[in-house]
Amino acid sequence: MFGIQDAIRAVTEKFPTSLYVSTCGFITRDLYNTADRPENFYLVGSMGMAAPVGLGVALARPGRHVVVLDGDGSFAMNPGALPMIAEHSPDLVHVVLDNGVHESTGGQRPVRIADPAGMALAAGYSAAYAVASAEELAAVRPEPGVPSLLHITCAPRGAHAGKRVEWTPQQLVERFRAAAAA
Amino acid sequence: MAQAQTSTAPPPASAAGRENAAETLVQAFVDHGFTHFTGVPCSLLKGVFRVLESGAGPAEGVTYLPAPREDSALGVAAGLSAAGARPAVLMQNSGLGYSLNVLTSLNLIYDLHVPLIVSWRGHDGNDAVEHDIIGRELLNLLDVFGLRHTVFDPNEPHASVERCLAAAEDGRATPVLIVKEGI
To answer: Contact at 8 Å (CB) between A131 and A113?
Structure first.
């Protein structure tokens, strides 16, 4: 099965120049340890807020493509954000890394959303894709200029994530703001 | 009655006066470079939302984004601010509870200080019961988290916004404009 860390790496290689917002916990840590760049805005808290933050970034920088990295648990925490995002039609790919567990807190069972892609479409996203392998992910070509959801079914890490983000929150903002303006 | 009919003084709290206070409030934020407004409505802020939804007058050229919840409004505002825009968030004081996690684990620790325009239901202990506790404790709650609050004076709308923003001019604190009377 597609491992979550391989999925994160594959997404960063698929969208190498985008602005990223990652949800707190292991996903932020994996993004940081896989491909740290000024274009990454790591959330260290505020679970459920990666997608709203991504919308804000996209609206502030309409010329840039934005990737949101959510988990299945954090996605389930804030489905109310979906119609708000859809209304403004940002150039954004909302990735849901669905490993089926709250892995950052010890592997507990999250609330299951049966069909994240269907929910995004019902909320008004322009497109939604569901993939479960590196090959399927590679074949997805999200339409540019509109919001789409990319549901990736993947396997848990089965191990601890890498180290925590070492930049201070203020350093993250400073470098992200400069990178977003470039 | 006869005296009231012959009086030339304008009524103190006319609908037109409140509208002007709301327009001036929005204009004052625009004058300070604010570009985006998001939040969840309150009846005390009806006039402000009317101005923002109209997209006209002081709201011409600014973006208004209705939010499903106050915490999501703060999240969107944090993203806007991190990417270089100038957002402000509007909410009823009841929404401050939902907002606390985002304030303490995002806005405040990243120094993404977004002004909050917060209505104060229950400020006099004589409102609907659901506002009693948050109304009684609003200022204490703001003080606990170091949120610098200024009460909006509808007779001095522009100056009220100036005072509110000046209180957080160092960029290290979140300013809160508290609206007690409907505007």
So the answer is: no
CATH of the domain at A137: 3.40.50.970
Does B153 score more than 70 pLDDT?
yes
Provide the CB-side half-sphere exposure for B85 (13 A, CA). Answer: 22
Cβ contacts of B84 on chain A, cutoff 8 Å? 60-61, 177, 180-181
Instruction: Decide if the complex's ipTM is over 0.90.
Output: yes
Centroid of chain to Cα A49: 11
Taking residues B15-37, what's their average pLDDT?
88
Distance (Å, rounded) from C-alpha A3 to C-alpha A92?
A: 23
> At A69, which helix (H) or strand (E)?
strand A66-71
Q: Is the pLDDT of residue B5 over 50?
A: no
Element (H, E) at A20: strand A19-22
Contacts of A172 in chain B (CB under 8 A): 110
Q: Which of B52, B34, B32 is nearest to B42 (CA)?
A: B52
The CATH homologous superfamily to which domain B35-179 belongs is: Thiamin diphosphate (ThDP)-binding fold, Pyr/PP domains (3.40.50.970)
In Å, the largest CA–CA distance within chain B is 61
Chain A residues interacting with chain B (CB cutoff of 8 angstroms): 19, 21, 24, 41, 43-46, 48-49, 51-61, 78, 80-81, 83-84, 87-88, 169-170, 172-173, 176-177, 180-181
Whether residues B83 and A81 touch (CB distance < 8 A) is answered with: no
**Quick check: A173 and B76 CB within 8 A?**
no
Instruction: List residues bridging with A103 in a β-sheet.
Output: none
Q: What pLDDT, on a 0 to 100 scale, did the predictor assign at position B6?
A: 42
User: Which residue from B65, B71, B110 is facing A88, i.e. has the nearest CB?
Assistant: B65
| CA-based nearest distance B153→chain A, Å | 30
Domain that holds residue A79: 4-181
